[in-house]
């Protein structure tokens, strides 16, 4: 009431707006204030506010929003990229994906769907494409499949997918094309000949430098590398084709060259270097030495990959830093080490130099130098130009093997002849050295090192080996510290006890092997391998061929002299499996007399399959007829006659005492999946092996 009276008394003094405002204020302030909150209510409100609600968290909202945006971008960009590649790169105007194209076409379409390139998307080369000199762009690799049948449209060769997978690891894309041979061959009739002849389009012959129709009939595909070099592949040339696409390592600065040398510091890895700035307009303009260097890399570097690195220096100043003053020089470089230092000869001298903190030594290949070749063939050079001398004479069909042989011999000497001692650090190179020495029927002192490698111990070994080398200059000294080295050379390992303390460096295995001579295990008579080419000598030893082994001598670290021939044999008391007797060349003849049939398990120490067979050997023995049959084991490295024809482990041999014959038990499975299934089911594996052995006994 008081509020109303006050409003009426003062209303005549106020404007309408002021009256309204005054009335609102009176209404607002006349309300009762809320009661004060208690401590309990305030505590409950505080607890409610501190509860975490992930729905209201702005950070999670931002993460979900960003993920949704990223998903939309990836999906749309992927579809757009696929459409653009299909339309403008592969030439498919429909832009239809392979999944959609083969959808609902049965199981036969699944294999087609897995292919990364559809056969309809691979364009065919035309004469117009080959007339364009810039068609094969630099920095790209090309695979051109030759289609011989004019009516067919075959799918791409599996070789393409293999090369594409390998080249993808090197970040080098591979582009596919097809070349229909009938588009470039024109039939021509001659008046003198009844049968029509065929002429090749000059554009095709000029583009690939092959003008013979019969040669084109044999070509499967052509590979073009990033330098524009073209290589026809006639049969399965996967390794060479991959190397052709890979190319040697290119280095253009000292830092990268230092890193390449420094990563193999302390090893005997060799580096073959040449200067190739890459300024030539076409591969035909490369120097003779650069072509020979590439030829060796493409054909042989796969076997030397772990031991020899191929490098092309594209900077002339960097090349001059290591002695490559011209593009016709090839040099071999290695980090200096005492185990395999370079030794000089009359034609090639050894140079030592430093690159930052690395001590290096190098040897130049003088036989392929331009001035040396011109001097050697001076009488031919008078009647031809320099280009004809290189292209038609030195690289012609009659002279190419001789010219290429100069570089091959230099690299062979760098790896095998020039080093005073051969130090193998990888299994691949150890196999390479073994095959090389055996093929050339050479003598080798094989030494397997073990223990710590101290400077003092290394010095003592080098002194002994140097003295041995002076007395036996025709013997190669092969050093290695690989654990599997003995088995690679078919040598049984010595039974050395392992201790917690690392022993000083010593010879774990020391054998002198003569790959040019054989020894008779019965009579100890030495026979030259070359003498077996004589029919009379071969007929004389025909009965003892099973007892002929490569001549080996057991040597010691203290006494590097030849004693009597050594035959490999495991220790007769060694029983790897309880209850199963171990045989060797000393006791096998007596043990085989005990029962009518003897089953021999042939095993190897590092054989994966033997690890599955060995645990079930006692069970196999229990299921055999104990009265007539016995089961024994033998290491495959034992030099016994009945192991001559064993080419895999594990194997089972059956010896018939009455007939004196050995029969190989058939344990082959039809597929790899069947073999894996047997390895998983031990009981089934035992049943299969026992049944196979019993079948062999019946047939014998």
UniProtKB/TrEMBL annotation:
Recorded hits in InterPro entries, A to Z, give: Thioredoxin-like_sf (IPR036249), Thioredoxin_domain (IPR013766)
Q: What Gene3D superfamilies is this protein classified in? A: Glutaredoxin
Q: Which Pfam families match?
A: Thioredoxin
Positions of the UniProt region annotated as Disordered? 99-118
* All residue ranges annotated as the Thioredoxin domain in the record: 558-687
Q: What protein name does the entry list? A: Thioredoxin domain-containing protein
Q: Give the organism the record lists.
A: Halteria grandinella
């Amino acid at each position: 009431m008081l509020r109303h009276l006050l409003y009426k008394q003062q209303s005549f003094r106020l404007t309408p707006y002021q009256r309204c405002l005054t009335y609102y204020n009176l209404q607002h302030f006349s309300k009762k204030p809320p009661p004060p909150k208690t401590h309990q209510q305030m505590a409950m409100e505080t607890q409610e506010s501190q509860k975490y609600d992930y729905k209201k968290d702005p950070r999670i909202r931002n993460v979900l929003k960003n993920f949704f945006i990223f998903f939309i971008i990836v999906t749309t960009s992927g579809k757009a990229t696929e459409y653009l590649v299909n339309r403008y790169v592969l030439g498919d105007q429909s832009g239809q994906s392979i999944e959609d194209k083969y959808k609902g076409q049965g199981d036969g379409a699944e294999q087609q769907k897995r292919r990364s390139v559809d056969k309809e998307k691979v364009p065919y080369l035309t004469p117009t494409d080959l007339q364009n000199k810039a068609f094969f762009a630099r920095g790209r690799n090309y695979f051109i499949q030759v289609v011989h049948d004019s009516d067919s449209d075959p799918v791409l060769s599996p070789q393409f997918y293999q090369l594409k997978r390998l080249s993808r690891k090197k970040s080098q894309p591979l582009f596919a094309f097809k070349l229909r041979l009938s588009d470039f061959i024109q039939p021509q009739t001659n008046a003198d000949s009844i049968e029509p002849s065929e002429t090749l389009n000059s554009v095709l012959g000029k583009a690939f430098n092959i003008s013979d129709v019969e040669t084109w009939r044999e070509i499967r595909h052509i590979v073009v590398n990033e330098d524009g070099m073209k290589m026809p592949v006639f049969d399965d040339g996967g390794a060479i084709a991959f190397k052709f696409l890979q190319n040697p390592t290119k280095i253009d600065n000292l830092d990268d060259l230092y890193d390449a040398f420094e990563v193999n510091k302390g090893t005997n890895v060799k580096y073959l270097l040449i200067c190739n700035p890459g300024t030539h307009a076409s591969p035909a303009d490369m120097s003779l030495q650069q072509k020979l260097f590439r030829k060796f890399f493409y054909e042989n570097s796969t076997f030397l990959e772990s031991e020899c690195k191929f490098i092309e220096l594209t900077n002339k100043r960097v090349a001059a830093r290591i002695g490559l003053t011209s593009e016709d020089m090839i040099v071999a470089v290695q980090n200096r080490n005492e185990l395999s230092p370079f030794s000089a000869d009359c034609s090639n001298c050894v140079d030592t130099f430093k690159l930052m903190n690395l001590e290096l030594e190098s040897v130049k290949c003088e036989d392929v130098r331009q001035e040396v070749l011109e001097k050697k063939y001076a009488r031919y050079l008078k009647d031809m130009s320099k280009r004809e001398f290189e292209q038609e004479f030195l690289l012609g069909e009659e002279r190419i093997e001789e010219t290429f042989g100069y570089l091959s011999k230099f690299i062979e000497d760098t790896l095998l002849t020039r080093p005073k001692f051969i130090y193998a650090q990888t299994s691949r190179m150890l196999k390479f050295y073994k095959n090389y020495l055996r093929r050339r029927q050479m003598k080798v002192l094989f030494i397997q090192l073990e223990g710590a490698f101290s400077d003092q111990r290394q010095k003592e070994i080098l002194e002994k080996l140097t003295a041995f080398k002076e007395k036996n200059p025709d013997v190669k000294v092969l050093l290695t510290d690989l654990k599997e080295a003995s088995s690679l050379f078919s040598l049984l390992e010595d039974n050395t006890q392992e201790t917690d303390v690392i022993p000083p460096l010593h010879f774990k295995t020391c054998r002198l092997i003569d790959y040019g001579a054989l020894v008779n295990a019965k009579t100890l008579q030495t026979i030259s391998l070359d003498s077996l080419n004589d029919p009379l000598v071969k007929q004389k030893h025909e009965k003892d061929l099973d007892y002929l082994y490569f001549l080996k001598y057991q040597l010691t670290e203290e006494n590097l002299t030849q004693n009597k021939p050594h035959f490999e044999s495991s220790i007769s008391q060694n029983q790897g499996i309880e209850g199963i007797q171990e045989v060797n060349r000393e006791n096998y003849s007596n043990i085989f007399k005990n029962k009518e049939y003897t089953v021999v398990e042939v095993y190897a120490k590092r054989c994966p399959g033997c690890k599955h067979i060995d645990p079930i050997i006692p069970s196999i023995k229990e299921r055999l007829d104990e009265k007539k049959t016995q089961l024994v084991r033998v290491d495959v490295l034992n030099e016994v006659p009945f192991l001559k024809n064993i080419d895999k482990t594990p194997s089972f041999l059956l010896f018939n005492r009455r007939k004196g014959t050995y029969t190989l038990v058939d344990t082959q499975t039809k597929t790899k999946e069947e073999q894996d299934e047997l390895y998983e089911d031990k009981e089934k594996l035992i049943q299969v092996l026992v049944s196979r052995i019993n079948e062999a006994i019946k047939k014998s």
